[in-house]
Amino acid sequence: MTDTTSAKSVRHPHRWRRDLIELAALFTAVALADVVADLVAHGPDGPFLLVAAAVALSGTAAFHLWWAQRHSHAPPPAAAADTPHEDEMVRPETALWRMRTTVRDEPGSLAALCTALARHRVDILTLQTHPLADGTVDEFLLRAPVTFQAQHLGHEIASAGGNHTWIERADAHDLVDTPTRVLGLATRTALDTAELPLALRQLLGRCAIRSLPAPADGTPADDPTPMDGALQETVMRLRDPSGGAIIVERPYLPFTPTEFARACALIELDARLGSRMPHSRDVFTLPEGNEITVRRAGPDDVQAARAMHDRCTERTLGLRYHGPVGDADRYLDHLLSPRFGRTLAVQTASGRIVALGHLLRDGDETEVALLVEDDWQRRGIGSELLGRLMAMADETGCESVYAVTQAANTGMVAAMRGLGLPIDYQIEDGTLVITARLAATPDRSRLPHELPYGQSEQSGC
Q1: Distance between CA 433 and CA 439 in Å, rounded?
Q2: Domains (ranges, CATH) in the chain?
Q3: Beta strands of 146-199 (E only): which ranges?
């Protein structure tokens, strides 16, 4: 039913009243007209009365016209003009929080949490539930007033029945819903074997991931990992498809069965796809005009890397591996394994590898290492590799990257300083640790493109 029809239906029962009023007004007007006519026709002042009535009528009409024009173009009241539109009102500043708490598995427990949050104008953006044997873990992404502190939030959740509550600040990346994030991580894992540990870390949050290689002689491990993995509160043991095990630890927050199932699904995807690596290759020209190719390297490049070792001097290998030169070859299986990081190789037009750059995961930290063959040093290759490795570290969310070298290796120091990042130095017994803080640079996307060629390089860099 339209508004017009409704209005007519409402007024219809009272139409007889309006008709009666109009009829009374009509009789009154006729009576007044008869009185005025008698006064004009028979009274001594009839003509003057008629002129006065005409003047009064004209004045009334003019006043009404002036009043109507003035108020039809009048500005809106000051209060209405100063009131902003609802969409233009300044909203209070807010902050994003991630919160996880455990509640009893009974009706109304989640409603109590939501009521406590709504009482303080905290908006629930996303919600996940992780069922347990004796309760439920609820994980929230919240938007709260910036003045609302974590301690206050934890107190309110505790009063609403939550326990084992964990709260930390979130950012815009957490606004992506869980299915979308998991699908993205699965896609990255499908494209690159080295992405599996990184995907696990992004899936499970802040945690430490260690890869334990299988025994080299083929003997069974002392503590073998079950085929389906094992979950022990804050520790996951996952069977590495390439051999060995992947250990995931998160001391501050126990893993839930749901998280364990997601991690196992990524492991199974990696196992079914087998070894894989991006085939992209970048060609760049050295200052003297030679073209070389930078590409990803893996286990298939072990023999070519050993041949490069044979062409390097003992001083170059000593600066790189900080130990007996004869043991250099045995590091290659570890360095070229995608489970421990990523490796870039520089090869000539003939296909010979002349430089290697490694980005190695070391628990929560990341190490960078370079080795450039003697005949190809001082041509900008080390700086080019270092910039690309730093860009990779930035993509994975690393806040800092460190390099371990000797104090005499001025080439590595110069290459690290050439990044234009804040650098920290620590030296002890001739060993130099150089740490570059990626999180401090304002435009981290330009890292691999601002490195000048021709940086001074010494052996090992």
Answers
A1: 18
A2: 91-174 (3.30.70.260), 178-273 (no CATH), 281-449 (3.40.630.30)
A3: 163-169
